[in-house]
Amino acid sequence: MKYVFAILAAGLAATGSASAQTPIQTTHDTYCIMCHDTQVYTRKTRLARDYESLRAQVDRWQSNVSLNWSDQEIDAMATWLAVRYYGLSCPADC
């Protein structure tokens, strides 16, 4: 199941709003929360410390569960997570 994440993530990043349930949040709640809850984003031992390491974790886990996301979908989920949970700065092109 594929979603066009890039447009949604860009809109979220631009507005800073994370309150509306979007397809990207539904995807997150379906595929990410099935293994852990959102506390993984705030724990002191979290692996994602910057955008690049967050993107690497998104790529790693989508691969582990065979989602076969495109680079754009990985970027969009990483951007959404960076804005929604991590408060991380994204590269200029995300």
Give the uncertain stretches in residue-range form: 1-9
> If helices are DSSP runs of H or I spanning 4 or more residues, what is the number of helices?
4
User: What structural category arises from helix and sheet content?
Assistant: mainly alpha
User: What value does the Rg take, in angstroms?
Assistant: 12 Å
N-to-C SSE string, H for helix and E for strand? HHHH
Please bin the fraction of helical residues: 40-55%
How much of the sequence lies in strands comes to under 5%
First-last Cα distance: 22 Å
Give the overall shape, derived from the CA principal axes.
Answer: globular
Number of strands: 0
User: Sheet bearing the most strands, described?
Assistant: none
Mean pLDDT: 76
List keywords for this structure.
4 helices, 54% helix, 94 residues, mainly alpha, globular
Would you give an account of this structure?
The protein is mainly alpha-helical and 94 residues long. The chain has a domain at 48-94. The chain contains four helices and no strands. It has helices spanning 5-15, 23-32, 51-64, 71-86. Helix 1 packs parallel to helix 4 and helix 3 (51-64) packs across helix 4. It is globular, with a radius of gyration of 12 Å. The model is unreliable at 1-9 (pLDDT under 50).
Write the layout of secondary structure elements.
Layout: H1 5-15, H2 23-32, H3 51-64, H4 71-86
Helix pairs in contact: 1-4, 3-4
